[in-house]
Amino acid sequence: MIPSDIEIAQKASIRPVMKIAESLGLKEDDLEQYGRYKAKLPLELIDDKKVGNSNLILVTAITPTPAGEGKTTTSIGLADGLQKLGKKTSVVLREPSLGPVFGIKGGAAGGGYAQVIPMEDINLHFTGDFAAIEKANNLLAALIDNNIQSKTRSLGIDPRTVLWKRAIDMNDRALRKMVTALGGKSGGIPMETGFNITAASEIMAILCISKDLEDLKERFGRIYIGDTFDGKAVYAKDLKAEGAMAALMKDAIKPNLVQTLEGTPALVHGGPFANIAQGTNSVIATKMGMSLSDYVVTEAGFGADLGAEKFFNIKCRNAGISPKAVVLVATIRALKYHGGKDLKSLSEEDTEAVVRGKENLRKHVETLASFGLPAIVCINRFTSDTDAEIEILKKACHDCDVPFVVSEGFAKGSEGTTDLAMEVIKAADRFKEPFRPTYELNDPVRTKIEKVCQTVYGAKFVLLSNKAKRQLHRFEELGYGNLPICIAKTQKSLSDDEKLLNRPRNFDINIREFEIAAGAGFLIPIAGNILRMPGLPGTPAAENMDINSDGVITGLS
Q1: In order of start, what are the domains of the chain with their CATH numbers?
Q2: Which of 234, 411, 449, 483 has the fewest CB atoms within 10 Å distance of its CB?
């Protein structure tokens, strides 16, 4: 029986971070160390020429079960496998949010024998990046409130139009909607507002799209707050907020260097969710990894309909980069789930459910092909998978005319991923042209949405509510019609209805409203009832966590 993730991590032989840095060709003066095992790297290490010569590998997945299908574990295992084959490799990942850590999914440091360490630090406060993001976010909220109640410096902001919310890195449904400033005149002007989870803050999105500190500060200034009483748009720069906000981010903008269980360098930076934001680590961290390594493995959140689509159409387009190979993680568990099997019985053999669920895999293969980058399917094997079920999945891959590899990084580390690593090397060697975007930036906004919904989700029509139409008209008036789109949608289905599993057909996508991330540089059509502040599940993962008198943590996964 394989020990728990935290037991494996705590027994691992961890190397000083300086030794990891040396494997990337770095010197001690290049690092800002946070203890013995973590460090931040300066942005000056990014070299655009080296970026162009590196092999970027994207790991995505089919539509996941609530617990996820192992993209991060696969990414780490693949990086270790490439390193084992003699390739200078780094893995570049997002930082975990405390929402999932204490909620249902657990941490985001991988699993089994494919983890990044120190696991407890990475999954909890790490180097304080999320705290800095919260402070920058909430500073702007305080400056907005202060200006509204000011008698001498007021911009005339109409409180009813203010879009900016506060942020906290926790699943707390009670904070979704609230009224502030109920303490009388000294408490300010009462307003209806709420909290977003930190991963959904525009500050997080800006961090992960910026190229340097100056770009970050300029983007902070472009944040759209709301309107004045006479209808004039108000931005963060009108409050002179961007300088102080950027000052809070002076360290958070630098990527964090850690390591895998096998000593492969890992850059962990930024953490936007893919169902409500762009769902991938920072451009800065990705480019730094590409500057320091010949192969860089990275992941994009949830299924290819969310993380991968945004990775291509937002991140890669903005950064001027392209992956040379894409790994699509598929599991027997997910196929059975999409084939109608109950979540509680996914460990039971059910070949008929696997057969029914393979249509979800087929759709994601088609989606990745639409970008001009055929996928390699990684069959992420679980101990409950039977040989008969694996054979059905292999046949499904064969029928899709897509290469496939069974990966066992969770159970075996790099020994279980070398076959996948070899297939990835071959795919990268065959790379000829960068990805094809789903839409052009000068397409009308509605056309962009339709192209994503029809090509990537498989939808029939896109329907906009009257509220969404009014908001879109306003944002187009403000000059935001040429921005890319970042559709907020459930991760549980290809549609906007989480109950429609597998590969739904003849469905419509309902855009109920729009949000604008003017600083990050994209429009956010919100499909269905997606929330920017999740709630805790009936049995939160936090209930299983503890710490003893020696400071040893248990129950973290």
Answers
A1: 5-127+252-429 (3.40.50.300), 129-245 (3.30.1510.10), 445-527 (3.10.410.10)
A2: 411
